[in-house]
Amino acid sequence: MSDWKKSKHLKVVLLVLLVFVLGVTIGIGRSHKVSALSNNVYEDLKGFTDVLGIIQREYVEETKPKSLLYGAIKGMLETLDPHSAFLPPENFKEMQEETRGRFEGIGIEITTKDNVLTVVSPIEGTPAFKAGLRAGDQIVRIDGESTKSMTLMDAVKRLRGPKGSKVTVTILREGFTKPEDFTLTRDVIPVRSVRYELLDKHYGYIRLSQFQEKTDSDFDKAIRTLEEESNKDLRGLILDLRNDPGGLLDQAVKIADRFLDSGVIVSVEGRKEDQKMKFSAQAQDTLPPYPLIVLVNEGSASASEIVAGAIQDQGRGVILGTQTFGKASVQTIFPLRDGAGLRLTTARYYTPKGRSIQATGITPDIVVKPTRPEEDKEGAVPKLPTEKDLQRHLMDTGKTPSKDSGENKEKTKKEEVKEKKLPDNQLDTALDLLKTWGIFKKQIKGK
Question: Do the Cβ atoms of 216 and 254 come closer than 8 Å?
Fold first, then answer.
């Protein structure tokens, strides 16, 4: 076959592939969506296939069509908001495993701030946590390779790996005179979404680290255990959503529904009519009206903010801590034919009062900043990156939904929470407030 025929054949194949991918991106199983592409788009695709043909013929080394196609798709997604991404097969598989509750790596949540790879939070009990990595740490190199031009997905791919393998991350931290190397041994990271502890015999503490497939059922088990341990005398709850990056929307709705017996939990609005949804609380399975305090911080994002926003707007509990991350967008996962996936921002969500907290976050009812003596010696507690710090973040439209008000790792019981017993003034303040709550209630009844 001549070079000209090869080039023409390649263009046709790649054009068909790209049109297929664009069709899947718009809506799986909806063939009419492909035909909805404008003639202008088809004209632009001709230019795209011309470039592919030139690369195939003229580039100094032989290239693989699939690699070029993947690169083009990644480039398309990188023009959108920072939460939309193309997931090659291995990354898509890892994401599914993480949602189900396990993966292999070092155990940190990361993001990019000012084009620098930054730690949002280490996961308790993981290699990263045990090595002393902290929120706000800047990862400047991974195994000696600069992260300056590394995408978030590339960084995750390099940090994850088989149990027992090693990875060296070079960290720049406030107080360091120069970057320092941390060599970590990867392990299985069981992302335990629910941990709990009974405080002072009568006050329940429940920490949600992520919203996964079984978060609601694990939450119910935690409540039952706390009620038993308190001899059916549970006098208040602390729901800890600090450094919880979010997760599954339906799980956030189910957790919020445990505390609310009616009214809107969250409303979701996208461009299409079938993306407009409203989730309301049901009286069934609602918990007793325990006094409730919700802990949040800059690492509380997405699904965490849905729960906190619903509780705040409905006046069900007190939100305590610092301003939240500010991610009020919903991502939909589209599986592709070759095992890859597409994570695409498809909607915005609104709190029960119609607030969009995109790039602004939720302001706590009571602001309590964390104090960590061991970090204060080196300077101020590092500020975590939030949604507004991310490049290409969605702007707050200020839109209120038009119809109604509203918007869209278990060890044995107590040991897990007790792994880290550093001073926690936010938790101490919450517990003091719950105790005071009980005192005022008694005084009111006495009158």
Answer: yes
Q: Say if CB 15 and CB 49 are below 8 A apart.
A: yes
> Do residues 154 and 262 both lie within one domain?
no
Burial class (CB in 10 A: 0-12, 13-18, 19+), 45: middle
Q: In this structure, are residues 111 and 385 in contact, taking their beta carbons and an 8 Å threshold?
A: yes
Burial of 96 (0-12, 13-18, 19+ CB in 10 A): middle
Residue 32, phi then psi, degrees to nearest 5: -65, -20
CA-to-CA distance for 130 and 23, rounded, in angstroms? Answer: 45
The C-alpha atoms of residue 254 and residue 244 are separated, in whole angstroms, by 16
Q: Mind listing the pLDDT tens digit for each residue in 152-179?
A: 888 988 999 999 999 999 999 988 999 9
Position 335 in a domain: no
Under the banding of pLDDT at 50, 70 and 90, the label for residue 443 is low
Q: Give the number of other Cβ atoms within 10 Å of residue 127's Cβ.
A: 22
**What is the CATH classification number for the domain harbouring 396?**
3.90.226.10
Please report whether residue 135 resides in a domain: yes
Do 144 and 225 lie in one domain? The reply is no
- Name the pTM for this structure: 0.71
The catalytic residue positions are 302, 313, 327
Q: Is 38 exposed, middle or buried (0-12, 13-18, 19+ CB in 10 A)?
A: exposed
Whole-angstrom Cα distance, residue 194 to residue 111?
Answer: 23
Q: Is 379 left (phi over 0), alpha (psi -120 to 50) or beta?
A: left
C-alpha to C-alpha distance for 368 and 321, rounded to whole angstroms: 5
d(CA 201, CA 220): 19
Contact 30, 272 (CB under 8 A): no
Sign of CA dihedral 66, 344, 108, 259: negative
For β-strands 166-172 and 180-185, DSSP reports them as antiparallel
Query: What range defines the domain where residue 290 resides?
Result: 194-330+344-442
Residues 280 and 420 in one domain: yes
DSSP structural state of residue 148: T
- Confirm whether 431 is domain-assigned: yes
pLDDT in tens, 173-211: 988 999 999 999 999 987 789 999 999 999 999 999 999
Number of structural domains (the chain) is 3
Write the single-letter amino acid at 51: V
Half-sphere exposure of 362 (CA within 13 A, CB side): 37
Report residue 175 as tokens.
């107080």
Looking at the domain assignment, is residue 94 inside a domain? no
Q: Which residues of 318-355 are buried (b: 16+ CB within 10 A; e: fewer)?
A: bbbbbbbbbbbbbbbebebeeebbbbbbbbbbbbbebb
